[in-house]
Amino acid sequence: MDIIVRDNYEKMSRYAAEIIAKCIKSKPDCVLGLATGGTPIGTYKELIRMHKQGLDFSQVKTFNLDEYLGAGIDLGKPYDLDQSYARFMYEELFKHINIKKENTHVPDGLSKEPEKFCQWYEDEIRKAGGVDIQLLGIGGDGHWAFNEPGSSLSSRTRIEPLTKQTLDDNYESFYKKAEIKREQMPHFAITMGIETILEARHVLMIANGKKKAKVIAKALEGPITSQITASAIQLYNGKATVVLDQDAASELKNIEHYRHVEKLKLDYKLGSVSLH
Ligand code: PGA
Fold it and tell me: What's 162's domain CATH number?
């Protein structure tokens, strides 16, 4: 696992976007696993900037990690009250780049048969050839996607109840601004499972800010546990890159070692992207 620390959110975002851009350039029809939340917005801004300079998404396919059950782009609802992840992706990335709508996949929170949908989603990922790079944040409760504490580390795409902490965090970040009452927030989600995520060929986790410092230290340096589902990164057998800002990295015990490894790899020209 490569743990990369950058001075601030902007530099963290740029680093993550460069990894994704490199994948798109080397494989124009690559499959990206995408995430929502406050953390990836900067990465998406960078990708949009790169698109304006020629980065081509016309053959790229995407699969999002999760969606609230009961939410989705539903033309029956006032659009600006729709806090679905489908809308988030449209606003923060898809409408700004030349991706084909039919190549984008966000779990359908409005599905009439959500359990069947979960199986369909797994099949679609497989049919697309699997995910080349999976972008992930980390929740305040240590979750990856909506794999809340106690989720099996071999879970697949399914319906998951949300913890109080997730509801509080996401209320503050998104729902409050839309003046939606907390009790009206969806309490369940469709989420890729931990095993689904770990089948990606490259896992790219990003985190910023002091409020993520403790949970990042637990996930990366603590025991592997279903109580912090992001700790499953320690089981991962493919290429894993964790990009943090200084604040999110501030509780890591082995920070000097991670810096040393990054420098060694650069010295030996093993670094995958340019230094910032
Ligand atoms: P955040 O959420 O980016 O809004 O902090 C991350 C997550 O829940 O995975």
Answer: 3.40.50.1360
Is 141 an active-site residue? yes
Maximum CA pair distance of the chain?
56
* Separation between Cα atoms, residue 125 and residue 16, nearest integer Å: 22
Rounded to the nearest whole angstrom, what is the distance from the C-alpha of residue 64 to the centroid of ligand 1?
13
Tally of domains in the chain: 1
Q: What is the pLDDT of residues 61-90, one digit of tens each?
A: 999 999 999 877 765 555 555 788 998 999
- List all residues whose CB is within 6 A of at least one atom of ligand 1: 37-39, 137-139, 173
- pLDDT tens per residue across span 218-266: 999 999 999 999 999 999 988 999 999 999 999 999 999 999 998 888 7
Using alpha carbons, select from 129, 105, 124, 136 the residue that is nearest to residue 236: 136
In a domain, 276, yes or no: no
- For residue 275, is it within any domain? no
- Give residue 212 CA to ligand 1 midpoint distance, Å: 9
Q: What's the DSSP call for residue 211?
A: G
Residues 141, 147: Cα–Cα separation, whole Å = 10
Residue 139 in any domain: the answer is yes
Q: Which residue range is the domain that position 35 belongs to?
A: 2-270
Half-sphere exposure of 54 (CA within 13 A, CB side): 2
CA of 252 to the centre of ligand 1 (A): 19
* Probe residue for ligand 1, chosen from 9, 36, 88 as the CB with the greatest number of ligand atoms within 8 Å: 36
- Catalytic residue list contains 56: no
pLDDT, tens digit, 9 for 90 and up, residues 138-176 = 999 999 999 999 999 999 999 999 999 889 988 887 778
